[in-house]
Amino acid sequence: MKEMFKINQFNLMASEMIALNRSLPDVRLEGCKNKLYPDNLPRTSVVIVFHNEAWSTLLRTVRSVIDRSPHTLLEEIVLVDDASERDFLKRPLEQYVKRLEVPVRVVRMEQRSGLIRARLKGASISTGQVITFLDAHCECTTGWLEPLLARIKLDKKTVVCPIIDVISDDTFEYMAGSDMTYGGFNWKLNFRWYPVPQREMDRRKGDRTLPVRTPTMAGGLFSIDRDYFQEIGTYDAGMDIWGGENLEISFRIWQCGGTLEIVTCSHVGHVFRKATPYTFPGGTGQIINKNNRRLAEVWMDEFKNFFYIISPGVTKVDYGDITSRASLRQKLQCKPFSWYLENVYPDSQIPRHYYSLGEIRNVETNQCLDNMARKENEKVGIFNCHGMGGVLCKHKQNNQSVSSEFATYQERCKQTCQHFSTMEMTEPIA
Ligand code: LR7
Ligand code: MN
């Protein structure tokens, strides 16, 4: 079991002992189970990209789509092989999918391209009115598809995600995800789940079966109208391998006039891994930083500086040519990032108003406020200045009270920088 775990960074042995068409619990809210949807929903193509995926997880994804979607709504499944190096993913896969009740097409990237360009390829050869993207280790549950398509039918500018349930990487147990979390991001531009704020509960008048407007999507599981996907500029094909595309498409959707939702009546499971099993040609950091820089440069205006100042090393990474993405933003007349923060993500950790950005240094001792590699909500410390980023403070004009947790911290701030009267730590970085 331990040996096999290393191949895909999940318990492959457990996965192989579980039927490809296993039953799953119905984890939907009661109020979701008897909702009615229009008859003439748009049909979807399901696009699944993979690189060296395990047979059992890939085919369980495919089987769950076929077994739990009305076939009238399923145009086809498109599997995009991103230059995998496993023999069973070649002819055996093609042979296997031929027998399935729904058309399944297998296309191959000529060379390792990353999930972004692989998805672009899958989208371009697919034909359904809606395109639904899934990771290659998912399982769809009863009734997952109809509520997604119904939102798109209502407004093609709505991009929708299911609730992402957790399939244990250890036991493959299926655990319901929460309808009380939505997508955000931190200063390092990592996607993160956060509690759905009260304003969003209020907007839905407390009805948890109604879709949640989410600032960002996790990235792997969503449905989008084909024409709208084109209109808003699909993906940034200049992004490599993995990362950044999820926030990029999220910012773009909101800033350019669309809506991004989590449809709480739709549940799809995903195997969450703690490590990536595959290579990042050119280096993991290089690639993710490049993608994030493209995202920041095109969409974040001056707020990109929060990202740069917290991770100064990032600015050394070349991000290539972004002129076509910048002109896309121009052409679509997309709103500024400040609008997004103000209207879509007011609970963001990035402050909308700030007076300065940078380190807080004691010029006498050359020591700086430092997160001391501690976790969020733990106290900061003082350490020799290293210029590698870390804690950022924003100071307020008015004398806002700070919690006792921050008292020591505030005291230190005062000692270090006399002219900062009141401060608030916006995010200690892990
Ligand atoms: O080079 C690659 N080529 C590929 O085809 C690298 C990956 N892939 C495939 C891979 O086989 C898989 O099917 O792309 C898919 C996603 O890769 P994962 O499963 O390694 O990614 P992840 O689940 O760790 O990452 C999340 O963030 C990514 C950022 O680029 C993508 O948006 C993933 O789709 C996304 N997954 C989800 O949103 C599922 C929920 C995770 C959370 C939170
Ligand atoms: Mn995944």
TrEMBL record:
The keyword Secreted applies. Its EC number is 2.4.1.-. Its main location: Golgi. The gene is GALNT1. InterPro entries: GalNAc-T, Glyco_trans_2-like, Nucleotide-diphossugar_trans, Ricin_B-like_lectins. Residues 45-229 form the Glycosyltransferase 2-like domain. It is an enzyme of class 2 (transferase). This is Polypeptide N-acetylgalactosaminyltransferase. It is a single-pass type II membrane protein. Transmembrane segments: none annotated. It comes from the Eukaryota. One of its GO terms (cellular component) is Golgi membrane. GO terms for molecular function: carbohydrate binding; metal ion binding; polypeptide N-acetylgalactosaminyltransferase activity. Its cofactor is Mn(2+). It is found in: Golgi apparatus membrane; Secreted. Pfam families: Glycos_transf_2. Belongs to the glycosyltransferase 2 family. GalNAc-T subfamily. Keywords: Disulfide bond, Glycoprotein, Glycosyltransferase, Golgi apparatus, Lectin, Manganese, Membrane, Metal-binding, Secreted, Signal-anchor, Transferase, Transmembrane, Transmembrane helix. The keyword Membrane applies. One of its GO terms (biological process) is protein O-linked glycosylation.
